[in-house]
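batch job 7 of whatever, protein = Probable RNA 2'-phosphotransferase
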Amino acid sequence: MDQEKCINISKFLSLVLRHKPETIDIQLDENGWADIDTLIERSNNYGVAFNKEMLQYIVATNSKKRFAFNDTIDKIRASQGHSVNVELGYASQKPPEILYHGTSERSVPSILNSGLEKRNRQHVHLSCAVETAVSVGQRHGKPFIFKVLAGQMYNDGFLFYLSDNGVWLTDKVPAAYLEEE
């Protein structure tokens, strides 16, 4: 399968399943699910052509596991990262003692002042692996990695959720829980 085409479809799916379903006039349910047949039909009408087999391939091979099917494989959703209001249904869990967040060096002063904020997304995204945080930080410039004292936050009453693709989610990380990696 053409990798460039798969990447383009994946980016398109991120747009419509995380941020702007109205782009192709689809509705996400309260848990972020979209009907696959409707998604394919409206995407094809919009000029982004794929079929169910291609969609299954993209979901299965996406290195970040950004998307998930329901049990009957008739609905799809983004695993996290939504800017539209959805309830993903993840149960609160105790996180590892330390998690990581990657950003650009230019964002460090602001983060040290106000902490990590979800801004236009539903959650702050954290990872278990420094390498993942570096990869995320590189998307925005020269990377800077924060160590997040997640165990301490949890003990202080903050809630954490683990997405289907292994990303830790929380509402905010106050600056007091951040250290330089």
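notes: The mean pLDDT is 93.
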